[in-house]
DNA sequence: CTTGACATACGAATTCGTTAGTACTATTCT
DNA sequence: AGAATAGTACTAACGAATTCGTATGTCAAG
């Protein structure tokens, strides 16, 4: 079966972040987590999670009266798909310009930059 | 209600790419460039460019009978904004995880990785 | 001067993302 | 048992994004 669309809409992503963080959740769990940030209706969360389940991002099983949801794919896989879609859409598939932007725009703390530079060194020397 | 996109929507971006590449364009120029990739109506392009002008991404001036459009902001500025929005939405504002994904997923050719590693070295040693 | 080419203006249809109300069911509390 | 509570299903609605048709105006060639 063809894998479902790797991209999530903004609100879908918000919900998936909570699911990835908590592991197994009910609609109520997600609802309460979202309530901390903003006003939202319980049924809205339910609708979104039903859609996410239809799209293959969530799996559910019944437990007592309510459904318990869990992520169908690991976070890394989905995030990787979103990055790929972004790189394709904005940079026609080549990641170098994005990397250059990130490095140049000082959006990253210096010590992290250095850490990453070391990591690149290891990766590149390790695979030849 | 779907929130109004603060950045460029996919189709808007497609048009802006053409504008940035060509400099000054008429609707027809963009229409013909898009036709190479896919079927689209002339009036669709016109509508999109009108919207882009209303949103402040394009400027127009009359020349003979038609409008000539040009980008209101340089490509780098707009792309930077899109990256920022993406990092905020997907990574809660921190760019390191994105960088890590890019480096780890081998989406980048080795020589480019090395080039970037050197660039980081210069940047980080240069600013302390 | 009429016709054809080409431009814009206007508006409308469609799909999608997002939000939420209402009806109904099942469980729990008094 | 009857009421309150908590869950799902179904439906509706709205705005944003995308697409394009029709009406209309203008200019130039025959």
Outline the structure in words.
Chain A has 128 residues and is mainly alpha-helical. Chain A has 6 helices and 3 strands. In chain A, strand 2 and strand 3 form a beta hairpin. The mean pLDDT of chain A is 89. At the A-B interface, helix 4, helix 5 and helix 6 of A face helix 4, helix 5 and helix 6 of B. Chain B binds a DNA duplex (30 and 30 nucleotides) through helix 1 and helix 3.
Brief summary of the model shown:
The structure is a homodimer of 128-residue chains. Chain A has 128 residues and is mostly helical.
How does the SSE layout of this entry go?
The structure is a homodimer of 128-residue chains.
Chain A lengths: L9 H13 L1 E2 L1 H9 L6 H13 L3 E6 L2 E6 L3 H17 L4 H9 L5 H17 L2
Antiparallel strand pairs in A: 1-3, 2-3
Helix pairs in contact in A: 2-3
The structure holds a DNA duplex (30 and 30 nucleotides).
| Oligomer description | homodimer
**Mean pLDDT over all positions of chain A:** 89
Q: Major sheet of chain A: size, sense and barrel closure?
A: 3 strands, antiparallel
Note the total helix count of chain A.
6
* Uncertain spans of chain A: none
Q: Going across the major beta sheet of chain A, what is the strand order? A: 1-3-2
Helix content of chain A: 55-70%
- One letter per element, helices H and strands E, the order of chain A comes to HEHHEEHHH
Taking the alpha carbons of the first and last residues of chain A, their distance comes to: 35 Å
What spatial form of chain A do the alpha-carbon principal axes imply? elongated
Q: Biggest interface, and residues per chain?
A: A-B, 38 and 39 residues
Secondary structure class of chain A reads mainly alpha
Strand content of chain A: 5-15%
Tally the beta strands of chain A.
Answer: 3
| Spatial extent as radius of gyration of chain A | 19 Å
């Amino acid at each position: 079966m063809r894998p479902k669309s790797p991209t999530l809409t903004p609100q879908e992503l918000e919900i998936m972040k909570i699911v990835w963080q908590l592991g197994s959740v009910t609609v109520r769990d997600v609802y309460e987590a979202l309530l901390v940030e903003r006003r939202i209706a319980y049924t809205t969360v339910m609708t979104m999670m039903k859609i996410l389940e239809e799209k293959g991002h969530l799996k559910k099983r019944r437990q007592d009266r309510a459904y318990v949801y869990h992520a169908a794919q690991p976070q890394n896989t989905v995030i990787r798909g979103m990055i790929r879609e972004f790189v394709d859409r904005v940079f026609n598939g080549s990641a170098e310009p994005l990397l250059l932007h990130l490095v140049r725009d000082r959006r990253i703390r210096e010590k992290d930059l250095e850490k990453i530079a070391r990591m690149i060194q290891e990766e590149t020397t390790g695979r030849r």
